[in-house]
Amino acid sequence: MRLSRYILLISLIVIWQLLSYFGVIPKYKVPSPVDVLLGIRDLFIVGLPPGYRLMQHILESLNRVFWGFLFAAIIGIPLGIVMGWSKLLKGMVDPIIEMLRPVPPLAWIPISVLWFGIGIKSAVFIIFLGAFFPILLSAMAGVVSVDVVLIEASRSLGAKGKEVLLKVLAPGAMPSILTGLRIGLGIGWMTLVAAEFTGVKTGYGLGYMIMTARDIQRPDEILAGMTIIGLLGYLMDRILRLVEARVLRWR
Question: Mean pLDDT in the chain?
Fold first, then answer.
């Protein structure tokens, strides 16, 4: 049953390979799946640039995404819960959030380099911005969506403001919070390439590797890097889904 969910993906890969094999899709524009796999092999063995092997690129990118996502969750979840609980705080903070939220994370790259220099801090900051707003808004929406009856029932049993917040609103908002974490993680991965292109100086990172492949016109290794990012994002999303299933076992 579980294998059936991958039938469409496998079918698309087979069609892609056939179209490439018969020349319908030029390989110099879109390499075949086999060429992409060979590109991944070369990245593991030789590296890009030579000597900078794929595993180190993966570890560096995971490190940057982890810290950017962690800071977004640490700040976004509590702030979102409190904003959903306090109309006063929401009224004060919401205009600032709504002014900053439409600004693409990539537009922050010049100022992040100015603030943090070229290095891991600026890359983490860009990833943080990508993940922060979905997490914040999901936490706030989760608190607002909690049934008023539950809040009034807890108060009738003697719960005070802090107890209502921690024992009723926060658990009630958990489904929305976990959804926001998944969305934020996905957007964090989406900002990785640009963040690493301008915000690293070690020469390691999947985004940096993809840009290097572009410079030397290796579309197979570009797609290889994109495939690795997609697989890592998928695996991390599956981990969050497992956490969600365990935490929300009561649903």
Answer: 86
Contact 137, 180 (CB under 8 A): yes
Euclidean distance between CA atoms 242 and 235, whole angstroms: 11
Do the domain assignments include residue 17? no
CB 31 within 8 A of CB 219: yes
Q: Are 222 and 213 in contact (CB under 8 A)?
A: yes
Going by C-beta distance under 8 Å and a sequence separation of 6 or more, which residues neighbour residue 240?
Answer: 178, 181, 182, 185
Judge whether 6 lies within some domain: no
Lookup result for tokens 């600026």? 122
Rounded distance between C-alpha atoms, residue 141 and residue 83, angstroms: 9
Is the pLDDT confidence value at 198 over 70?
Answer: no
Residue 184 lies in a domain: yes
Q: Does any domain span residue 9?
A: no
Residue range 4-57, pLDDT digits in tens = 778 888 899 999 999 998 889 888 888 999 999 999 999 999 888 888 889 999
**Local confidence band at 200 (pLDDT 50, 70, 90 cut-offs):** low
The total number of structural domains that make up the chain: 1
3-state helix, strand, coil in the chain (%, to 5): 80, 0, 20
Look up the CATH number of the domain holding residue 35. Answer: 1.10.3720.10
Q: pTM of the entire structure? A: 0.85
Sign of the four-CA dihedral 41, 45, 51, 55: positive
Integer Cα distance of 184 and 132 in angstroms: 7
Range of the domain at 197: 31-247
The answer, yes or no, to whether residue 250 has pLDDT greater than 80, is no
